[in-house]
Amino acid sequence: MRKFDPENERLKLVYQDHLRHAEGLDHKTIDKAMAAIRQFEESTGCASFKRFRKDQAMAFKDWLDTARSKRTGKPLSKATIASTLRAVREFFRWAAGQRGYRATIGRGDWVYFKQPLKDARAARASSPRKVPGIEQVARAFDAMPGATSLQKRDKALLAFLMLTGARIGAVASLRLKHVDMEQRHVFQDAREVNTKNAKTMNTTFFPMGEAYVVALADYLRHLKEDLMFGPEDAVFPKSEIRCGPNGFEVKGLSRDPFASTGPLNEIVKDAFAAVQLPRYTPHSFRHMLALYGDKACQTREHFKAWSQNLGHEIVAITVSAYMPVTAEAQRAIILGLGEEDK
After folding, report:
1. CA dist list (Å): 103 to 46, 52, 98, 111
2. What is the pTM of this model?
3. What ranges in the chain are assigned the alpha helix state H?
4. What is the Cα–Cα distance from 115 to 121, expressed in whole angstroms?
5. Cα–Cα distance between 159 and 137 in angstroms, integer?
6. Which CATH code fits 134-283?
7. Which residue, among 291, 294, 336, 332, has the nearest Cα to 128 in the 3D structure?
8. How far is CA 56 from the centre of its chain?
9. What is the pLDDT of residues 172-201, one digit of tens each?
10. For the chain, what are the domain ranges?
């Protein structure tokens, strides 16, 4: 079986340029699309795209149903299959209009990548997300030590998430110049900070308790005064590894950010695990803050401001994405409304 087809590779390069410059997609999204197209090629033995027919699309769906994740070894989820089929469908829809492919790719053949309706509904279904309570965060935070530079960083990370609800990708790329403790403000500048959809955001600290502000302020003072960090240095830098008498050892903090968000995720998860709580993720803080804001805000204007502080221009995004109503809660609420009328 061939490992690649030269003509396919050339067309994929053109498509990458299309996605980046015509569609405005970022590298991460483009990489996912390329990975999906590569899976299709594997299913056909790298057959030429010029030979694409609808039976290949139908066979690819069967291939995905039996494929397994390279990371976990488990069958692919319905959501993963849905995103893969969508990416490949869009590629062939685009390819059908390209010179040299208009006459070879059958009109409408690419629609056969559509997922069965039953599976599509399953792909959109979501299981209840585990969200920490205010008290659980406080318990994990209070148990965290804060003597060394690394311990101060880890504790400040939990405090920062509590105060801002910032996405972990943005947190990992923040520089000291972006955080103003006096104004209790974070400027998520999309030109320098890895925000979602490259959107610049102004975030004011949520009123979640002075203990978190104190811990963050103490950590930032430590960076600036004790370690002589400057405005361009990372707020949450990676650990510095040096070669010592016993081999490589952690020797404090580097000035550079982590290359990925993985280590920061583990810091947060480990903090909860240390006090026998579920390993909540950094993103769960956003859900917790949305739920808390719904109860704390007394007016529609207040909740609008709360929502904007989470980075949502439209309140409906906060409500639909972060404030689900379970089937049990739905039933209880509806029955409760009936009782109130009696």
Report:
1. 20, 11, 9, 17
2. 0.75
3. 6-17, 27-44, 54-66, 78-95, 117-124, 134-143, 149-164, 168-173, 210-221, 262-273, 284-296, 300-309, 315-322, 327-341
4. 10
5. 9
6. 1.10.443.10
7. 291
8. 32
9. 999 999 999 999 999 999 999 999 888 999
10. 6-124, 134-283
